[in-house]
């Protein structure tokens, strides 16, 4: 619908031009219906949602069980402030999350999304050290090429310099070490294990440089999503990270906002690394987009220190533990379990990577195909031999998004920056319900979009 036709129908001048949060001046189509992995616009055009929005819609759209659970909750009560009331949905969701959490986790702190979860985890880490009498521990170490949210604390620890740049004066101090980026950084004479050890040891060096007595936490995404297109860790990396954190008394905060809740084939991505964090953030797939919700999974160690110290975590948000959000998340998590969808994530994830390799593995501008489960990234390069990224002014990722969308495919294109070098990545994070035919369609449409651009 054009702005002109919109204005003609509406008594409001310039109707349809008031939303600020767009990057483009043109008004996008309106999503009027969703069904499974498809979204339909006002003209009836369908879009295959191959990225779950931003790795959110893990059950697809209009799931009947989630809709029924939300209706039931709203019919009882939609919201009651958590300072006065609990709800069945919140209590049952917390019980189920703790029962399926990595070892050591025994509490859940609910929030409304990923950035709020990062903020809560950072503040909880700080409060933990105050409770145990180590007030100097204030610095946070994170990784370059990472994203932990857009609020000021989350932006401070995020390692995407492009996003941080203009807000730098407002940010808290954080140091950044190398991410695990095998495609670009593993040396030819190095095994994955040796490479993992080398980059993990950068954490030790950073802790020693800051003085261990000053360092509160290390924050990392087990599989990096939005800034680098599904970068998975190498074997042994997180074991060494856990060892270093334990040796120096530094807390490990795992950000599973994007890679968690089944996306990589296990409920938590960190399960595949054989360790657990002291705090772990989750969001996106937790409520599958039916309602905004996030959470911090809290270890007994942290909870005990706060419970036995000042007695409560000094934080809070109006919508934490929102009953309808908890009902949606509970129904989502039960659907994933009851329908055995994690097995499908593994199976279709393998199909997706095989199909991408078969169709695009030799494409002159496809440098790397990577990831885990239904969390797969494609890195595009100007030169496969040298791995030279495209000139950023070409805006390759934006062109690919546009071409794919025109063909009816939603793919998540990103441009990240590593030490000043920009790269173009496309992320695939479809719903856990996809089948072989859907995988083939995604790859065909994406290959068509690449043809349109190159
Ligand atoms: N952490 C990670 C790893 C993310 O990918 C994101 C969002 O993409 C966030 C945090 C922030 O989540 P939100 O956008 O819900 O605030």
Could you give the topology of this structure?
Layout: H1 3-9, E1 31-35, E2 38-41, E3 46-49, H2 52-55, H3 64-76, H4 88-99, E4 105-111, H5 114-131, E5 139-143, H6 152-157, H7 161-164, E6 174-177, H8 182-185, H9 192-210, E7 215-220, H10 237-248, E8 251-256, E9 279-282, E10 294-299, H11 300-308, H12 323-338, H13 341-360, E11 366-372, E12 375-380, H14 396-406, E13 409-410, E14 412-418, E15 421-428, H15 436-453
Parallel strand pairs: 3-13, 5-6, 5-7, 7-8, 8-9
Antiparallel strand pairs: 1-2, 2-3, 4-10, 9-10, 11-12, 12-15, 14-15
The structure holds pyridoxal-5'-phosphate (PLP).
Structural class: alpha/beta
Shape: globular
Mean pLDDT: 94
CATH superfamily of the largest domain: Type I PLP-dependent aspartate aminotransferase-like (Major domain)
The number of distinct structural domains comes to 2
Q: Which spans of ≥5 residues are poorly predicted at pLDDT below 50?
A: 1-7
Order of helices and strands: HEEEHHHEHEHHEHHEHEEEHHHEEHEEEH
The total beta strand count reads: 15
Bound molecules: pyridoxal-5'-phosphate
Radius of gyration: 22 Å
How much of the sequence is in beta strands? 15-25%
CATH topology description of the largest domain: Aspartate Aminotransferase, domain 2
Q: Any idea of the CATH class of the largest domain?
A: Alpha Beta
Counting H and I runs of at least 4 residues, what is the number of helices?
15
Distance between the amino and carboxyl termini: 29 Å
Question: Major sheet: size, sense and barrel closure?
Answer: 7 strands, mixed
Strand order of the largest sheet: 4-10-9-8-7-5-6
